[in-house]
Amino acid sequence: MKVLTCPGCRSGKYVELSRSGALTESRNNIDFVQNAYAVNQCNNCGLYYKDEVLSEKEFKVYYNSFDFNQWSDPRNIYPTEEIIKKQLGKAIWQAKEKLKILDFGCSDGRLLHFFAEQSFCFGFDIDERIYKTLSEKGIEGLTSKELEDKDSYFDLIIISDVFEHLLHPTVLIQQVWKKLAPGGKLIISTGFADSDYCRFDIADYWYFKNLQHVCMLGNRYIDFLAATLRAKVVLRKECSHYSASFMKKAGRKTAFSIRFFLYKHISTKKSSRLNRIVRKVPFLNKIVKWNTQPFYPFAKDHIVTVFEKMNP
C-alpha cells in the first residue's frame, strides 16, 4: 500500500532519507510482500515513515498468525521494560491509593503482571486470545467497547513496542490520551530514529527492515505530540532494546564496528575506489553485495518517553 501523506499529521511535504528493496515474510503458508520503499521524514511533525506498507487488511491477517506466547518468558525483560517498571514502581510508591494502570498493546501481560497486586491493572490488545491469560495474572482485559467508556479514568497508560506498528499514530494516541486522568502519565517506548546508529542509512536499518514496523519517532515528533496533546514531557530516556554482559557487549561492538566500516565504504550502495577494488578480490567481493546495515543488538536505538497530562 502506497503511503502518500504523513501518517502522523497528513502533511504531504517530506524529505526522502534513503531507499531499500522489497520485504517478504511467510507465515502459515501465506506470503506477505511489502514493495520496495523509501523512508521519509515529515517536514511538519518530524515523523519518520515508510512510503510503502502492507494494507490494513493484510496486517490483520498477518498479526492473527502470531503466537503471543513467544513473548511470554518473564525472565526476558528488555531494558526498555526495566525503565517502564521503575516509572510504574515510583508512581505506585508515591500514590496515596491504588492506581489504575492500562497497558495498551499488553500482549499476555508480560509487563503489567508485576504490579497486579499493588494496583488495578487493565490490558488491551488486538489479539483477544490473550484475555484468559490476563485474567489468570490478575489483569482485567478490556475490549474496544469497554475501553470507550473509560474517559479520564487511568492514572498511567503504557504503550510499549506498539508505536512502530501504528498506521495512524497521532490519531490513536489522541484517543488513548482521552482515557488518561488529569495529572496522569502516558509512557511510550519505541525505536528512536534520531539515534546515531539509525541515521547513516535508515531505510536499511534493521528496524525498518522489519515488515511490521511502519514508522519511527524522533525528538521533533515527540515535541509535536506534546504540543498536540498539550502535555509536558517529563522523561526522554534513550536505551538499547536488548541487554547482555559487559564482555559480550564489547565483543559484539568490536565485530559490529568492523562490519559497519565495510558496509559503509564497500557495500553495493556505495561508489568508491575501494568498492571497485574489492569487487575484483575473491571472497572479499561478497561484501559488495551486503544490502542491510549490520545489526548491533545493544545499540541505543530506543527511547522511553513520559508525557504528563496537565491539570485543567
UniProtKB/TrEMBL annotation:
GO terms for biological process: methylation. Coiled coil: none annotated. CDD domains: AdoMet_MTases. Keywords: Methyltransferase, Transferase. SUPFAM superfamilies: S-adenosyl-L-methionine-dependent methyltransferases. InterPro entries: SAM-dependent_MTases_sf. One of its GO terms (molecular function) is methyltransferase activity. This is Methyltransferase domain-containing protein.
